[in-house]
Amino acid sequence: DIQMTQSPSTLSASVGDRVTITCRASQSIGNSLAWYQQKPGKAPKLLIYLASSLESGVPPRFSASESGTEFTLSISSLQPDDFAMYYCQQYSRYPYTFGLGTKLEIK
Amino acid sequence: QVQLRESGPGLVKPSQTLSLSCTVSGDSISSGDFSWTWIRQHPGKGLEWIGHIFKTGGTYYNPSLESRVAISVDTSKNHFSLSLTSVTAADTAVYYCARDVTLVGMDVWGQGTTVTVSS
């Protein structure tokens, strides 16, 4: 299985901050990577697909990039609604796998 | 817009079979370049991909569950189903169904249903 190593596991930040979450794949996955946001008691929401494409309706303060097997999700100016869990997921090879998640919490 | 909704028992006894359905509304399950996916989330943990089915009936499963899992689709009822046999407490989780767009990811999710395995 492809392992997705996500860091940090917890990130404390303030409204208005810029933050970055990283996900590293254990082998090459091309750009077959998605980012999801999940709030307590809710289903995940797709934010980014193909490593850097913004899903329709997602605010442009979210952006993402890739460099080899390292992928990053950035939020340029944190809003109160952004404090949540974030997961990366590879869909290059079966079984599809997720990172363990990053909890973005208010400092 | 497309909506998904899971249904099924919230409590299953150990060694029995967990059976869930996901009803698709707002579009035909046969349309588009989609697969129909089950994911689960153990209490307080991350996401685990269980498997998915294409409208052709082709399936892919997580090898960790492959001996116990089956996903089927009923196009006449516009729903797809999950069957997980010989359950144990380790199968206690929130189960989500989702639409997976090829080369994009899971863009529509059900609200999730909690399944507890307990006698």
Give the secondary structure arrangement, pairings included.
The complex is a heterodimer of chains A (107) and B (119).
Chain A: E1 4-7, E2 10-13, E3 19-25, E4 33-38, E5 45-49, E6 53-54, E7 62-67, E8 70-75, E9 85-90, E10 97-98, E11 102-106
Parallel strand pairs in A: 2-11
Antiparallel strand pairs in A: 1-3, 3-8, 4-5, 4-9, 5-6, 7-8, 9-10, 9-11
Chain B: E1 3-7, E2 11-12, E3 18-25, E4 34-41, E5 47-54, E6 59-61, E7 69-74, E8 79-84, E9 93-101, E10 105-109, E11 113-117
Parallel strand pairs in B: 2-11
Antiparallel strand pairs in B: 1-3, 3-8, 4-5, 4-9, 5-6, 7-8, 9-10, 9-11
How would you portray this structure in words?
The complex is a heterodimer of chains A (107) and B (119). Chain A is mostly beta strands and 107 residues long. Chain A has strands at residues 4-7, 10-13, 19-25, 33-38, 45-49, 53-54, 62-67, 70-75, 85-90, 97-98, 102-106. In chain A, strands 2, 4, 5, 6, 9, 10 and 11 form a seven-stranded mixed β-sheet that branches. Chain A has a four-stranded antiparallel β-sheet with strand order 1-3-8-7, with no helix packed on it. In chain A, strand 4 and strand 5 (45-49) form a beta hairpin. The termini of chain A are far apart. The relative contact order of chain A is 0.34. The model of chain A has no long low-confidence stretch (mean pLDDT 97). Helices cover 0% and strands 55% of the residues of chain B. Chain B contains no helices and eleven strands. By secondary structure, chain B is mainly beta. Chain B is globular, with a radius of gyration of 13 Å. Chain B starts with a strand and ends with a strand. In chain B, strands 2, 4, 5, 6, 9, 10 and 11 form a seven-stranded mixed β-sheet that branches. A four-stranded antiparallel β-sheet of chain B has the order 1-3-8-7, with no helix packed on it. The interface between A and B is medium-sized, with 23 and 23 residues.
